[in-house]
Amino acid sequence: MTTDRHPLAVLTLKTVHTIVFAGELTAILWLVISGMLGRRDGSVGVAAAAVAAEAAVFLANGGVCPITPLTERFGSSDGSVSDIYLPVAVARTIPVWSTALVVAAGILHARAILRAR
């Protein structure tokens, strides 16, 4: 970590990270809701692609968001996932509950596809 502090850069990165998180959470929740409704359209494909891309980036980076080390490089004392504007208890458990929601969405969509047959 650098000793130089760049508060504007850290603020910008935290804000970008929060926006990305909100978009990903929206996509995950849409997959759950559309799975409950049995909906299959382009919006479901876009949401699934966004979630898959985010998961691939997260896993390829060793289970760390690539924004985290960047935030630390610009002087954040703690660039962990809690660098987004959430309570620490919620932020630290994001991989657990978001994975559970993605699995639930997959099950709901599989059920809807089987029922349609």
Task: Report on this structure.
The protein has 117 residues and is mainly alpha-helical. The chain contains 5 helices and no strands. The protein has helices at residues 7-37, 42-60, 67-73, 88-92, 94-116. The longest helix is centred in the N-terminal third of the chain and has 31 residues, at 7-37.
Would you spell out the secondary-structure blueprint of this structure?
Elements: H1 7-37, H2 42-60, H3 67-73, H4 88-92, H5 94-116
* H-E order: HHHHH
Shape: elongated
- Percent in strands: under 5%
Kindly provide the radius of gyration, computed on alpha-carbon positions and rounded to a whole number of angstroms: 17 Å
In whole angstroms, the N-to-C terminal distance is 55 Å
Report the helical percentage.
over 70%
Mean pLDDT level: 87
The number of helical elements comes to: 5
Largest sheet properties: none
The stretches of 5 or more residues where confidence is low (pLDDT under 50) are none
Q: Give the strand tally.
A: 0
SSE class: mainly alpha
